[in-house]
Design a protein that fits this description.
alpha+beta; 385 residues; 10-stranded antiparallel β-sheet; 19% strand; single chain
Amino acid sequence: MQTGPRELITPFRPIPLDVPEGMKPNEFFNSTENLQDLSQNNGLLSNPENLLLYRKALGHSNEFDCSIIFNSSKCILDPLGRPVRRTQLPLPTKNSWNRMNQIMIEYMLEKYPDPEEALILAGEASLDSTWPLTAPGVPSIRMLHNHFIVFNMTQLRDAKLADPDNPNLTDGGQHSLFQAHMRSVYRYFFESLELKILKPVHGDDSQLTLTGYPQGLPSWEIQGGVEILKSPHFWNEYDLILKGFLDFYRTFFTQVSTRNAPISEKAYFPDQIENHLLFDNDFLATAKKVRDICINDAKYANAIRWQPAFKQLIYRNDKNKLIVTISQNSIGNAITELLGVAVKRVPDAEAYEKSEPALIEKLLEVRQRLIDADLGDPIKTPYWD
């Protein structure tokens, strides 16, 4: 079978949504009113830490698909002021967040034990205020949330090959700025982090045979498998990967913006930045190239995400190992595309309703596990009690 990214057709039930006059849809999606609608119609569970588990009405997969969001819409009305990554959460909220993530991943692995039959992933995407709200490709809800998705491997094998030049598949090495010009220093910087549970892996050990993705991204095997996810030490290391990415991204684009800029006082790893980045000729030469283009090309400069935007995920590879990877976020791409799955959603209520009962059954089952672990209370909607 030919290796390459797949384009998967996913039907959904059209959502009747009345956007107030004078607002653009992606502006309305950030409003308290819309988040209340999301909870009432698709909410599964909520807890005092403002974490909300909900069904993805416009999902990636009708096999299993849901999200947990830190619903700060009522306590932080400014969409640009809301937490968009784990490192910004209060400690009690982060502890509940990590425990919920562990239970969700454990459930998916238990329900789908064979990597030949199901592709499993759990991923967080940055929703930073890196563009104006009205710019194309801006995520619709600017709040921290995680995706939990299962794809049927038979459907993926039968799906047509996606165009590898699709702009939504730009997180791989063939397009990425980091990978094209700074691959060695990027990896070297990550290797300087002190990790005991996460072991660096490359090439075939991280790629899916079917799609050939991820491409060129730093990846780590989770030593200890699903059981180690119950340890706070794992989640601390998961955060170290994110903090390392944020430091690298901020340092690079700070140098693009301001030649010979000092290290930020908010840096997590100032020693590594000084020793591995600010004395690396390739790193600084690439910053100069980008700076020179920005000075002369307004369109190019406007397209840059000057602030960190990332996607970080846990997924199961072909060898039944849990892998962590992280990537800079490109315009409009979905988290599934890190693994070479480009989802094309099509409105088809009849097709969606055929898979809905089995989907809801699994969502209610995992909800009960979260309730039993004292991680929230159930939400009643028109679709479930």
